[in-house]
Amino acid sequence: KHMANSAAILDLPYTYLDIVRPGITIYGLFPLPLAKRTIKLKPVAKFKTKIIFIKKVDGGESIGYGRAYTTTKETTVATLPVGYADGYPRLLSDRGKVLVRGRRAPIIGRICMDLCMIDVTSIPGVQVGEEVVLWGRQEGKNISVEEIAKKTGTINYEIICMVDKPRVSKVFIKKGKPFKVKSLIEDVVPD
Known about the structure:
It comes from marine sediment metagenome. The protein is mainly beta and 191 residues long. The protein has three helices and 13 strands; from the N terminus they run αββββββββββααβββ.
């Protein structure tokens, strides 16, 4: 018998019965903003990608669908191969930020199905292939799942679940090294 989900595990020990269902706490996240912090949780997931294209554009140039964003000065724009089809919320268009070299870079224009663009003007020397963190930690800085949830008017559960798409490879880390990769095609165990 079981009743206790993540919130009950934290607040209602009498609901444990035979087993519990930790859910969101497996990811190191609290189920509710008001949940008791009776245990210490550390977020364990990161959603990241790499820059695939960089271009300097003049002021007055439109970026993305619908010409929704127009640069006001010369801007270095980096393109990321992630969009709403990958579980990255479209509601972050012109509102969200990502981490590049541990610094926040704003999303500019609309998040597309397969791509989004960021302004890396304030981060000199950014190169194609550099890691970009959409949520999670990088170089001691963090964009939390809760921050993304708040900006998009939802809950942390939804942000985590949105990324569970076949298009998004999942890399499982054990003792600092990948031990399993779940990708679009198959599960792979690295050498």
